[in-house]
Write a structure and sequence with these properties.
The protein is mainly alpha-helical. Helices cover about 80% and strands about 0% of the residues.
């Protein structure tokens, strides 16, 4: 799944995670194809936090960049 597909999947299926990303890593929402290493680290941290709360390791593996 490409970065764009991951973001669309998150937007459609996990609005709470999408809101976290939008609030904390806005560059990911605006242009996920051209984000830097710091944005990737932040994105992965928020995805890990969200999936950890849900105890969903397979979702985490699917969404990490």
């Amino acid at each position: 799944m490409s970065r764009e597909e991951k973001l669309k999947f998150i937007e459609e299926n996990h609005p709470e995670l999408y809101a976290l990303l939008e609030a904390n890593v806005p560059d990911v929402i605006e242009d996920i194809g051209n984000i830097g290493i710091n944005d990737i680290d932040s994105y992965n941290s928020w995805v890990s936090f969200y999936c950890g709360k849900k105890f969903d390791l397979s979702l985490m593996k699917m969404l990490l960049i």
